[in-house]
Amino acid sequence: MIIHANVFSYFIALAAALILSLVLRLPLLPDKPMRNSWTISAVFPTAVLSVGFYAMAYELGYHGYLVALITGIITALFAKFILEKVVPRPEGEESHE
Amino acid sequence: MNEILGIILAAIISWFNFVLIDTWMGLPESPGVKGAEIIGRSIQKRGGNLAGGFFQGNIVCSPDASAGTLLASIACFTIGTPEGGLIAAVLVYFGNRLCADPGYAGTTGALSITAIIYLTSFIGFKPEFFIVGMVLAILTIQGLYQTGASRLLGKLAQKMGRYTKIS
Amino acid sequence: MLIEILGIIVIIMALRTLLAQNREERLLCLNVIGFSMSAIIGLYIQTPFGAIIAITFFVTSTLSSNAIAYSLGRVKEEIMVK
């Protein structure tokens, strides 16, 4: 199989985000049943956001392992501190899906 | 890969991608918001299945795996595989949260179709096929025969243990 | 050719909307049009900017369908309460 030269960078971004988010004491998995849970966890959405943000950085021209590492770190910090303020969990009438 | 054949196959693949993921993520179980409930009840009144109606209502009211599939295909076409799909997954996640949905269905749909687009690219499939294919797939669920589609979705929900407990 | 196929779907769904018996049925047909228009935007503007526009259009059209469906529900509720 042909491997993208930068697959390893994605792994770095993913691993950095996962490890840092666990260090920052985000739960590993959301509460069960997972599909209805609003908790921000290490696997979701931090892992998804980390590879997504690195993809954005890659398309903007920033390649390389260091960029991946920084992206992973920023994603974990973003998920822990800023995400809840940007997309607050809705209360009351509008319930979960 | 011939274009028409590719589009039809991509439509079938996208159909399964979003229907299975959405059913697994509980769309037939309950209306996420009041809007989905009104659509579900309307489908039921016209002779359809309530769980299928909730599924269809949830598609209208919030980005779900169908949105994730479509937007990831568009992103893979314009930006490239897999970067496009990964970016689309992030944007779908934020779109979901804006619509009062936790975001699992949309991002899962986007990521899975990105993987499928990547793998099928080795046998001649292009992301464009999945863009048109996904629109054809949603046409079969929301557009053509709504009550019939709801009954099919209801049966699938029953098989996967996601049937609604509301009556 | 792809954009033509999507355009035909839009026109068929628009006509189907006329045949609908109630507003909820119309909402479902309009939803297909939203998907199709988003796809046409992406296929026409073939750049990453096109993808951003297509995604933004789709999410915002979902938001407006959400608002419409919610209001339909509230209206029905109020009619029943009265």
The proportion of residues in beta strands of chain B is under 5%
Topology, number of strands of chain A: 0
Summed up, the helix count of chain A is 3
Number of strands of chain B: 0
SSE pattern of chain B, N- to C-terminal: HHHHHHHH
Radius of gyration of chain A: 15 Å
- Total count of domains of chain A: 1
Largest sheet of chain B: none
| Structural class assignment of chain B | mainly alpha
Give me the strand/helix succession of chain A.
Answer: HHH
| Largest interface, Cβ cutoff 8 Å | B-C, 47 and 45 residues
Mean pLDDT of chain B: 91
Count of the domains of chain B: 1
- What proportion strand of chain A? under 5%
Which whole number gives the mean pLDDT of chain A? 84
Straight-line distance between termini of chain A? 38 Å
Secondary structure category of chain A? mainly alpha
Number of helices of chain B: 8
Uncertain segments of chain A are 93-97
Q: Which radius of gyration of chain B do the C-alpha atoms yield? A: 15 Å
Write the layout of secondary structure elements.
The complex is a heterotrimer of chains A (97), B (167) and C (82).
Chain A: H1 7-23, H2 46-59, H3 65-86
Helix pairs in contact in A: 1-2, 1-3, 2-3
Chain B: H1 3-24, H2 34-45, H3 50-61, H4 65-79, H5 83-98, H6 104-120, H7 127-144, H8 146-159
Helix pairs in contact in B: 1-4, 1-6, 1-7, 2-3, 3-8, 4-5, 4-6, 4-7, 5-6
Chain C: H1 2-18, H2 23-44, H3 48-81
Helix pairs in contact in C: 1-2, 2-3
Provide an overview of this structure.
The complex is a heterotrimer of chains A (97), B (167) and C (82). Chain A contains three helices and no strands. Chain A has helices at residues 7-23, 46-59, 65-86. In chain B, 75% of the residues lie in helices and 0% in strands. The mean pLDDT of chain B is 91. Chain B starts with a helix and ends in an 8-residue tail after the last helix. Chain B is mostly helical and 167 residues long. In chain C, helix 1 (2-18) packs antiparallel against helix 2 and helix 2 (23-44) packs antiparallel against helix 3 (48-81). The termini of chain C are far apart. Chains B and C meet through helix 2, helix 3, helix 4, helix 5 and helix 7 of B and helix 1, helix 2 and helix 3 of C.
